[in-house]
Design a protein that fits this description.
The chain is an all-alpha fold. The protein has one domain: lambda repressor-like DNA-binding domains (434 Repressor (Amino-terminal Domain), Orthogonal Bundle), CATH 1.10.260.40. The chain has five helices and no strands. The chain is globular. The model has no long low-confidence stretch (mean pLDDT 89).
């Protein structure tokens, strides 16, 4: 992995946050406000460039109205089965 490349687990977490945000119809700014974070922080997390603390994960989950564990599930768990 190149030195500046985001860690795959941070990328997966960021994807889960972005997916939950988009599913709820929230903008980055709305999530940032609901979670008490800066929009810049949310963008960094969604892009896998920030390693959020437990308190930040809890704040994101609360802002999104999901359980913290939901944000830690593999991305495949977020997808609905295709029929």
């Amino acid at each position: 992995m190149p030195p500046n490349a985001p860690h795959p687990r941070l990328q997966a977490f960021g994807f889960a946050v972005r997916d939950a945000r988009e599913r709820s119809g929230m903008s980055i700014e709305a999530l940032a406000e609901a979670a008490g974070l800066s929009a810049r922080m949310v963008i960094g997390i969604e892009h896998g460039k920030r390693n959020p603390s437990l308190l930040t994960i809890l704040a994101l989950a609360q802002g999104l109205g999901v359980s913290p564990g939901r944000l830690l599930e593999p991305a495949a768990a977020w997808r609905e089965p295709e029929t």
